[in-house]
């Protein structure tokens, strides 16, 4: 019944309903207006995401396609080959082509769907190593499995694709680094977002959505506001709404 | 595709995706397992809720019916007749019968649906008056529009109905008052929940759900965990999942 918004991505999307998460904040923003679906898959890269596409975004579903979707991959694709997370690594050219396939599929679902590309956040290599030591102690990796320099290349390709396809995008890699102390302020383990980092994503997403016309303020309530219900003859209020 | 959980209620449900909200926490708990839908309608009583039933819970929909639903009304029904919120007032016997109609409708949708009744929270009358003064100043109501004593009667009828229908229920009115200082600890304006109050609701709902067999731990992931994907031949992992 309500318009749908789908958040498609990796763990940074998957964890977006944790306390202070950007997904929950988005769901709250669209309260009584649209449903926000968390389709975040921790650890997934774009290569694996392709296998989910037809089930998450069916081409011939019984439901209306989503009005908007965020595509937020790259943090795992950018894991370095030859390091501890290499099984998640996807070469950057393939990453870009996989993103392109995802976008094309979504546009096949609905040419009017707002599709927003989000780059991976930056990497705080020290924070990443600290986190590994805190979890694995002596067995922790000796070299970071992701670097900020390599992740930047993925972010750049993501933004390039958005420009090629004339899609709105969020350069989270750059945005987060605009603030001094971003390493600890916005990232909690060198990669995943703190509550403040989630707030940055939320503000960016709402900003891009509103600019593209997907704005909670512009969307209708599904039923009358309680103050508009005729308390003596409530059926009148609901008949009007349904006609 | 995923099982659905619907939260049906008034503002205490509608606000449940705010920071620290019980709905967002529930969505996070069921991450990758089930979708949680916020169907909270601020200011609504059970009389008005009846008008929404067929649209929120269609009897002959294309979608599978929800696996679980919370019904969380009464805070507005219990507004006092003759006071400032009297338009929301519903007599307690009608409140109980309206709840019964809601339950019957949900069971008509799906006899296996887990339906959980939640009583309204208690009222902190001082907190309510303070809040009114902070918003309306001199024009604030001179007498509380809800009392804890009257709300207790609604809570009692809600629990009685749950017993009559052999449904699980949460006596939030009683539960919240078990803790000293509940007035400010759990309520922020004498009626609506603080983050800590939301945590109480979340814990109660998850507890009742698990006892009734709706447990995230027992539900399957919709797609393989990333650690189980065959990185060399990912298609194998996804074929297995779909078969």
Would you give an account of this structure?
Two copies of one chain form a homodimer. Chain A has 243 residues and is α/β, with parallel strands linked by helices. Chain A has one domain (4-217): SGNH hydrolase (Rossmann fold, 3-Layer(aba) Sandwich), CATH 3.40.50.1110. Chain A has helices spanning 11-14, 22-29, 46-49, 53-56, 92-109, 125-136, 148-164, 172-177, 182-185, 195-211, 234-242; strands at residues 4-9, 35-40, 68-72, 114-118, 169-170. In chain A, helix 2 (22-29) packs across helix 10 (195-211) and helix 5 (92-109) packs parallel to helix 7 (148-164). Chain A is globular. The two termini of chain A are 15 Å apart. The model of chain A has no long low-confidence stretch (mean pLDDT 95). At the A-B interface, helix 2, strand 2 and helix 11 of A face helix 2, strand 2 and helix 11 of B.
């Amino acid at each position: 019944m309500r318009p749908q918004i789908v958040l498609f991505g990796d763990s940074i999307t998957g964890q977006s309903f944790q306390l202070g998460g950007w997904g929950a904040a988005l769901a709250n923003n669209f309260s009584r207006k649209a449903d926000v679906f968390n389709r975040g898959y921790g650890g997934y890269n774009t290569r694996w995401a392709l296998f989910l596409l037809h089930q998450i975004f069916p081409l011939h579903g019984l439901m209306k396609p989503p009005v908007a979707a965020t595509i937020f991959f790259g943090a795992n694709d950018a894991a370095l080959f030859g390091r501890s997370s290499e099984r998640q690594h996807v070469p950057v050219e393939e990453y870009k082509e996989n993103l392109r396939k995802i976008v094309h599929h979504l546009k096949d679902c609905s040419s009017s769907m707002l599709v927003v590309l989000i780059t991976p956040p930056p990497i705080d290599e020290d924070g990443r190593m600290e986190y590994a030591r805190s979890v694995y102690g002596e067995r922790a990796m000796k070299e970071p499995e992701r670097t900020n320099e390599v992740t930047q290349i993925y972010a750049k390709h993501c933004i390039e694709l958005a420009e090629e396809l004339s899609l709105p995008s969020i350069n989270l890699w750059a945005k987060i680094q605009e603030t001094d102390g971003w390493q600890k302020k916005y990232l909690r383990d060198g990669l995943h977002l703190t509550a403040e980092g989630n707030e940055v994503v939320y503000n960016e997403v709402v900003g891009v959505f509103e600019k593209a016309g997907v704005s909670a303020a512009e969307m209708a309530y599904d039923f009358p506001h309680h103050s508009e219900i005729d308390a003596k003859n409530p059926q009148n209020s609901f008949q009007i709404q349904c006609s």
